[in-house]
Design a protein that fits this description.
This protein is an alpha/beta fold. The protein has 2 domains: about 200 residues, Alpha-Beta Complex (Spore Coat Polysaccharide Biosynthesis Protein SpsA, Chain A); about 40 residues, no CATH class. Helix content is about 30%, strand content about 25%. It is globular and about 70 Å long. The protein contains 7 helices and 16 strands. The two termini are about 45 Å apart.
C-alpha cells in the first residue's frame, strides 16, 4: 500500500446538525401529534430541531431500552430530548429550557442529564409536573442534583455519549439506568425548573416490579468487588474503602494469585455458544 495516498483526518469536538432532537416511542399517533404540536408552539422549530420516533402503533417493534439506544445512537442534536407521547408543553417552552441548560452549564459543566422529576436521595423526590386534572406539583428549590430521573421527560447531552443497558429490557426504570450509567462515567444528573403537563401518574404494574428486580440484579453484579490484572499490575477494587485497602496488601494478593494459579482453571474463561 502506498502510504502517500492515505489522507488521515484530524478530528475535534463534534459539531451537531441540530440544537435539539426530540425522540419518542409512539403507540398512539393522535396523542403523539398533540405532543408535537405543543413543542412546535413552544419554539421547537424544524429549522434547528429534529423529531424522531419509533412506531409501536401496530405492535412492539422496540421496547424502551433498545429503542432509546437507537435514539441515542442516531440523534444529530446537541441535546437529545427523550419524552413520553402523553406530555404537553403548556407553560415552559424552549426559552425556559435553554435558560435551564445555561444555568447548569455554569453551575456544573459535568452534567449529562436534565429532567423535570427525579429522586435526590432515599427519601426526597423532586417533581415539576402538571397533572391531567390541573394539579401542579412544584418544587420551589431548583435545580437539584438527582440520583434518578423520571422517564416522562429527559434531556441528554449528546457529548456525554450515554447508552442504556443492553442486558435490561422493558418499559420501566430506564431513567434510573441511564443515571447510573452517567454516574459511572463521571457525569451528574439534575432536576430542573421545567414544568409540563403529563397525562399519566404512572402505573407500577407486574411488569414494573419485574423490571425493578432485573435492574437490581444487574447492578448487584455490575458493582461487585473484583480482582483485576493488567499487563503490568494487579489490584482489587471494591465499593468498600476498608476492604479495598486490606485486600490490596501484597501478602494477601500473593495468596489470591496462588488460588487462581492452582485452583481456578483458565477453562472458565473460554466462551461457549449460547443455545
Amino acid at each position: 500500500m502506498n502510504i502517500e495516498k492515505i489522507k488521515p483526518q484530524s478530528i475535534s469536538k463534534a459539531i451537531y446538525k441540530f440544537e435539539f432532537s426530540i425522540c419518542t416511542l409512539v403507540t398512539r399517533k393522535n396523542e403523539y401529534e398533540e405532543m408535537l404540536q405543543s413543542f412546535v408552539e413552544k419554539g421547537f422549530s424544524e429549522k434547528d430541531c429534529e423529531f424522531l420516533y419509533i412506531d409501536n402503533t401496530e405492535g412492539c417493534k422496540h421496547e424502551a431500552y433498545e429503542g432509546l439506544n437507537l435514539f441515542l445512537q442516531q440523534a444529530k442534536g446537541k441535546y437529545i430530548i427523550i419524552c413520553h407521547q402523553d406530555v404537553i408543553l403548556i407553560d415552559d417552552g424552549r426559552n425556559q429550557l435553554v435558560n435551564c441548560i445555561k444555568e447548569i452549564d455554569y453551575l456544573d459543566p459535568d452534567w449529562a442529564i436534565l429532567a423535570n422529576a427525579g429522586g435526590m436521595n432515599f427519601k426526597w423526590v423532586a417533581t415539576q409536573i402538571t397533572q391531567l386534572n390541573g394539579n401542579r406539583i412544584v418544587q420551589k428549590r431548583l435545580p437539584l442534583r438527582a440520583r434518578t430521573v423520571d422517564e416522562n421527560f429527559m434531556l441528554v447531552k449528546n457529548d456525554a455519549n450515554l447508552a442504556l443497558s443492553y442486558d435490561l429490557k422493558g418499559f420501566h426504570l430506564y431513567g434510573t439506568d441511564i443515571c447510573l450509567i452517567a454516574d459511572i462515567l463521571g457525569y451528574n444528573s439534575y432536576v430542573i425548573n421545567f414544568n409540563l403537563l403529563h397525562k399519566s401518574d404512572g402505573n407500577p404494574d407486574r411488569k414494573f416490579y419485574a423490571n425493578k428486580k432485573a435492574l437490581m440484579k444487574k447492578y448487584r453484579k455490575a458493582f461487585r468487588s473484583r480482582f483485576l490484572a493488567t499487563t503490568i499490575t494487579r489490584f482489587f477494587v471494591s465499593g468498600s474503602l476498608i476492604l479495598q485497602t486490606i485486600i490490596n496488601f501484597q501478602p494477601i494478593l500473593f495468596f489470591v494469585r496462588q488460588y487462581y494459579k492452582h485452583v481456578w482453571h483458565k477453562k472458565h474463561y473460554v466462551p461457549k455458544p449460547k443455545n
